[in-house]
Amino acid sequence: MATIRDVAKVAGVSVSTVSLALNQKERVSSKTFRKIIEAAESTGYVANPIAKSLRKGRSPFVSLIVSDIRNYFSQMFLAEFEHRAFEKGYLLTLSDKSGLASDETAVIRQLIAQRVTGVMISPTQQTSALLPQLDQAGVPVVLFDHQIPGAGYDFVGLDNRLAVGILTRHLFGLGHRRIAYIGGEPGLWTTTERELGFRKAMETQGLAVDADTVVSGDYTRAGGYRASMKLLCASSPVSAIIAANNEMMIGTLQAAQELGFRCPDDLSVCCIDEAPWGDVLRPRVTHTAQPAREMAIHAATWLLERLEDPNAEIAPRSEAFAPIFVPGETTGPPAEQRK
Predict the structure, then answer these.
(1) pLDDT bracket for residue 55 (50, 70, 90)
(2) Average pLDDT along the chain
(3) What pLDDT score does 24 carry?
(4) Cβ–Cβ < 8 Å for 198, 214
(5) Is 322 a residue whose pLDDT tops 80?
(6) What is the DSSP string of 13-36?
(7) For residue 309, which phi and psi values (nearest 5 degrees)?
(8) Is there a contact between 81 and 120 (Cβ–Cβ < 8 Å)?
(9) Strand-pair partners of 150
(10) Distance between CA 44 and CA 3 in Å, rounded?
(11) Which of these, 146, 117, 156, 122, lies nearest to 134 by C-alpha position?
């Protein structure tokens, strides 16, 4: 691999002149600069941006920390965020902590040790205790998806109450009255917000929320399956189910199929979040989609603003994006109304 000394030798200049040309080209003549560039191309020399940036006290890396990369929303967010960061000359590192506090602690400590430039994180309950470490290291942070109320950081997420409220009102409009809700992992901000959205929408429609119709599915397919089995095998089964994410919806569809329920003839189902299988699955699932691309652009813009001007005094900002209702074929009037 060619070195800066090789470039200097071919160009007939000193190593310091090559370094000056590559870092502050305005300080050398245009003739010398062209000579050095031609020498670099002929030798195959490629500057090491990582070493250069570390010498300046910062790395070229920004980090995205997600709770579960298998989640379709996380994948869409990752793709757009990486694109925006790369446009500004940053490289992206990805950490999938799977919601484990021990993993999150280790990841953040490693990022600080590697002098990461900025962090975008979907936080857990334990994240608030780790954020001061990033503050002390001077690392800008933007939160996405899950909020930490009062934490004082930029946050980009979904209007979760509205997302569930839309689905609840949709089912009510079709004639459903005994509607079940499968919530996410207890303790997470989105879990709380989405359940509150369901309860408020039911209350607004004058419907009671029975204790046996709100169950946890932990945001996983297996959890959605177990929760749906419990709901559909009860002595007083429900006519419709709302799942708080698409993973649990898959589990719900599996349980319904195994028990012989047809959607939407015998059971209506819907969820928050679109899925990669949504375009080919039949029947198509009714859902409220998160505008992941727009959310990622917004979050990336805020983080990059803080990176480009670390001394700027910018008050913490928060943006909750409105969900997009996508009607499908898994919801319809209750079975008794079809007779």
Answers:
(1) very low
(2) 87
(3) 64
(4) yes
(5) yes
(6) S-HHHHHHHHH-GGGS-HHHHHHH
(7) -140, 80
(8) yes
(9) none
(10) 9
(11) 117
